[in-house]
């Protein structure tokens, strides 16, 4: 054992429930609620020193486990089962080492817990590995957080040879031999980062569309959000199965943004496009991009990247190759990204970028961030409507992984109640100014969340 190693001494978990301020649409399903998993983990050093860490993540079952055979409550129950199993597994694992090494050792047990649930309950379909990863991410975050706190360091300062037993070759293969993770993460966060604001498929763009105002003092339509927060990055949710609507939507968003930015004197802003995997094939995306370029050339030029446009099971749809589309815009892998093998497959299929998410775990995210950098891929960090500690975690990844240009964070739009009190603890992380958030503050012990 290294003197810096830890073992898990204790673990507990709990849930919070919130209703969304306004519905958000995932893959054709309007979602109005969220269950947040909170995990607390205590670790102990060989010398008997202890520290407690905290991790949190929305379970996001509609996104992580989309199903036509199971109800919302059934998929949520499955993810809660995995949480209970993982709590016991962490306490009884007996594993010691660095959180990166413990997390890597735990991953097969994470997937086994999901497989067990499907078998025990005789489900008509297996639990997706993505759903198991989302559950595990809260525990993995708590472990990294506790480790940093035990050593009195931000966790991004603990990924070198002074703390780890193994170099990246152990985790990622021979081409990474002799390299350590701290080569691919920054010890200091970027001081400020632009925020990507979500334009949901159900969200009003103009005052005329805001026919049922919430009336809580927050902006009621896109123009108000841009003006209030000085937004320069907009993520546009699209249907993926209605080409005319999708093109019209981006053209309309571009028109609203152009008018507000003209009034503000802003000349440069960006879009990302999210089809939630619903495009039937890459031809749909190519036709969309062509029509958008014809109707709104400046809007087309503002598209920074496209999120995974087609089905997440890449092996089942080998025809959905992205080479031609990726010559026009970076196309990033998201839902399909589960491990290094899936990253290699995505590259073979023409994907040129990677979307990292805290909900897939600190351990996996940082390892794949190293691989994406070595392979020269476009990098972004995306959100799962993360509030509170989970947003601090997600923003920390964006601020410490080189090449990530912006933070995606939409809990302030859809679940502001879950952020109550957090901006006082992390000034400027939860409040947008001139389109940016304060990430310089994300350098405290552990993940910096609590």
- Output the CATH class name of the largest domain: Alpha Beta
Give the averaged pLDDT, no decimals.
96
CATH topology-level fold name of the largest domain: TIM Barrel
Instruction: Examine the secondary-structure arrangement and name the CATH architecture of the largest domain.
Output: Alpha-Beta Barrel
Number of domains: 2
By CATH, the superfamily of the largest domain comes out as: Enolase-like C-terminal domain
Q: Which regions contain 5 or more consecutive residues with pLDDT less than 50? A: none
N- to C-terminal separation? 28 Å
Question: How helix-rich are the residues, as a percent range?
Answer: 25-40%
**Gyration radius, in Å:** 21 Å
**How large is the count of helical segments?**
15
Which H/E pattern describes the elements?
EEEHHEHHHEHEHEHHEHEHEHEHEHHE
| Structural class assignment | alpha/beta
* Main sheet properties: 9 strands, mixed
Range of strand content: 15-25%
Shape: globular
Q: Give me the count of strands.
A: 13
């Amino acid at each position: 054992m290294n003197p810096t190693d830890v073992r898990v001494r204790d673990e507990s978990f709990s849930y919070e429930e919130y209703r969304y301020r306004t519905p958000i649409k995932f893959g054709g399903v309007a979602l109005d609620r969220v269950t947040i998993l909170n995990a607390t983990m205590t670790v102990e050093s060989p010398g008997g020193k202890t520290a407690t860490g905290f991790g949190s993540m929305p379970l996001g079952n509609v996104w992580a486990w989309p199903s036509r055979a199971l109800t919302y409550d059934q998929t949520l129950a499955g993810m809660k089962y995995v949480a209970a199993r993982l709590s016991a597994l962490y306490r009884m694992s007996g594993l010691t080492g660095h959180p990166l090494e413990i997390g890597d050792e735990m991953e097969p047990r994470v997937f086994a817990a999901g497989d067990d649930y499907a078998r025990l309950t005789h489900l008509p379909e297996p639990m997706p590995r993505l759903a198991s990863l989302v559950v595990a991410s809260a525990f993995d975050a708590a472990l990294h957080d506790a480790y940093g706190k035990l050593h009195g360091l931000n966790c991004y300062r603990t990924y070198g040879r002074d703390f780890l037993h193994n170099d990246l070759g152990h985790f990622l293969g021979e081409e990474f031999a002799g390299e350590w993770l701290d080569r691919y993460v920054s010890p200091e966060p970027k001081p400020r980062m632009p925020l990507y604001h979500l334009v949901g498929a159900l969200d009003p763009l103009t005052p005329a569309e805001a026919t049922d105002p919430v009336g809580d003092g927050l902006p009621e339509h896109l123009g108000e959000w841009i003006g209030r927060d000085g937004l320069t990055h907009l993520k546009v949710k699209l249907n993926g199965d209605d080409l005319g609507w999708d093109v019209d939507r981006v053209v309309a968003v571009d028109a609203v943004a152009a008018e507000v930015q003209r009034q503000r004197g802003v000349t440069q802003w960006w879009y990302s496009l999210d089809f939630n995997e619903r495009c039937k094939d890459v031809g749909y995306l190519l036709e969309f991009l062509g029509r958008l370029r014809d109707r709104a050339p400046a809007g087309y030029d503002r598209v920074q990247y496209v999120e995974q446009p087609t089905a997440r099971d890449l092996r089942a749809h080998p025809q959905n190759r992205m080479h031609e589309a990726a010559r026009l815009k970076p196309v990033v892998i998201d839902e399909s990204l589960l491990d290094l093998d899936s990253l290699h497959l995505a590259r073979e299929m023409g994907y040129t970028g990677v979307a990292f998410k805290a909900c897939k775990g600190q351990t996996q995210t940082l390892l794949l961030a190293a691989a994406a950098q070595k392979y020269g891929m476009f990098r972004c960090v995306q959100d799962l409507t993360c509030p509170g500690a989970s947003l601090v975690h997600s923003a920390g990844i964006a601020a410490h992984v080189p090449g990530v240009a912006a933070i995606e964070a939409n809990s302030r739009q859809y679940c502001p109640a879950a952020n109550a009190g957090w901006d006082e603890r992390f000034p400027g992380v939860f409040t947008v100014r001139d389109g940016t958030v304060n990430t310089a503050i994300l350098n405290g012990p552990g993940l910096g969340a609590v």
